[in-house]
Specification:
single chain, about 350 residues, alpha/beta, D-Maltodextrin-Binding Protein, domain 2, 2 domains, 13 strands, about 45% helix
Length: about 350
């Protein structure tokens, strides 16, 4: 009797496994499979030519995941989050991927958008780059630091000051764009800059710089190691009108991007090659940038808390007309239908 019971158990195990796989397949077919008519099959998605914001979008296009769910997607690159926001407000675009600051600023305008998913935890890509003589944050007293006011660049400087006791009244903060910061750092006019990847890598290599701090890691002598002083996330968002009128299309987009996340996890070397080609960067540089980002679509409390802190800072600068809890402008329903385990807030 024992051998027969063992065989029976193996049989039931195999059957349960097959049923599980079939359930996953059927679930996918219900979301985007054959016979499911999308509201639109041609779509333009806005983002920046930046691996912090557009990784899954590029992978989904290049690996055919958008095509697989019935979508012909054009990626439209914008030079900044502000330019993308202007296109959304102007009505030429309805869906895009951007960093937390421009997305929060757009919502607080106020403009009716909702976050559909996280694209990446990009906290580690926000970095303070310094010349060799700047060894500790307090060495910035009496020095100049380049940053872009009202963006993650400024918030990173503020976070550094709070975490390391830097008196910003003793630091000359010069507001400028990333290209100006990069040029000034390479020339030696600026001993420190608050940049994000891939600009920070270019500053280090072109200006003999080093990372003093990132949003997640300290390189300060004696305090080296993990130290999350600033949280930032790239997000996929769309206008409320677009989400309401195109629920099947929204789910199809999320399904394609979810497959892209799976690909990045399973084949990071292949993903690096695709992104290096798309963004015109050496593969080694792209590999290093990808290491500081966490590519995921999870909607969790970490993301919510980080976005709420960013909203508080922007409100204190007068960039937002009112404070609105982030949970009020996150739509979890579409992602819950595609990957329910990725929705970790109520």
């Amino acid at each position: 009797m024992t051998p027969r019971t063992g065989r029976a158990r193996i049989g039931w195990s195999a059957l349960n496994g097959a049923v599980g796989v079939l359930a996953v397949v059927l679930s996918a077919l219900m979301i985007v499979g054959p016979g499911i008519a999308l509201e639109m099959t041609t779509l333009v998605i806005g983002t920046a030519k930046d691996p912090n914001l557009g990784t899954e979008l590029v992978i989904a296009r290049e690996k055919g995941y958008f095509k697989a769910v019935g979508l012909d997607v054009e990626l439209k690159y914008f030079p900044s989050g502000g330019d993308l926001s202007a296109a959304i407000v102007g009505g030429s675009l309805a869906i895009g991927s951007s960093g937390s600051t421009p997305t929060t600023t757009l919502r607080g305008a106020p403009f009716p958008i909702k976050i559909l998913a996280q694209m990446s935890d990009i906290s580690g890509a926000q970095q303070i780059i310094v010349k060799p003589e700047i060894r500790r944050p307090e060495d910035l007293h009496g020095k100049r630091i380049g940053m872009l006011k009202g963006t993650s660049s400024e918030i990173m400087v503020d976070s550094m000051a709070k975490a390391y006791g830097v008196d910003l009244g003793k630091v000359e903060r010069v507001s400028m764009g990333p290209t100006e910061m990069l040029s000034g750092f390479i020339r030696g006019d600026l001993p420190a800059v608050s940049l994000w990847e891939p600009h920070s890598t270019r500053a280090r290599k072109g200006g003999s710089g080093r990372i003093l701090l990132s949003g997640t890691t300290s390189y300060v002598p004696g305090r080296e190691g993990p130290d999350r002083i600033y949280g930032d996330h790239s997000t996929l968002f769309a206008t409320e009108d677009f989400i309401r009128k195109n629920p099947k299309t929204v789910r199809a987009v999320l399904e394609a991007l979810a497959r892209a996340v799976d690909y990045v996890e399973k084949d990071p070397t292949g993903a690096t090659a695709v992104l290096a080609n798309e963004f015109g960067m050496p593969a080694d540089d792209m590999r290093e940038i990808m290491k500081v980002n966490r590519y995921q679509m999870v909607i969790d409390q970490v993301m919510v808390d980080d976005l709420n802190r960013i909203a508080e800072f922007l409100f204190s600068l007068g960039k937002l007309k009112s404070k609105q809890p982030v949970t009020e402008w996150i739509d979890t329903a579409p992602l819950r239908e595609v990957r329910p385990e990725w929705v970790r807030i109520k």
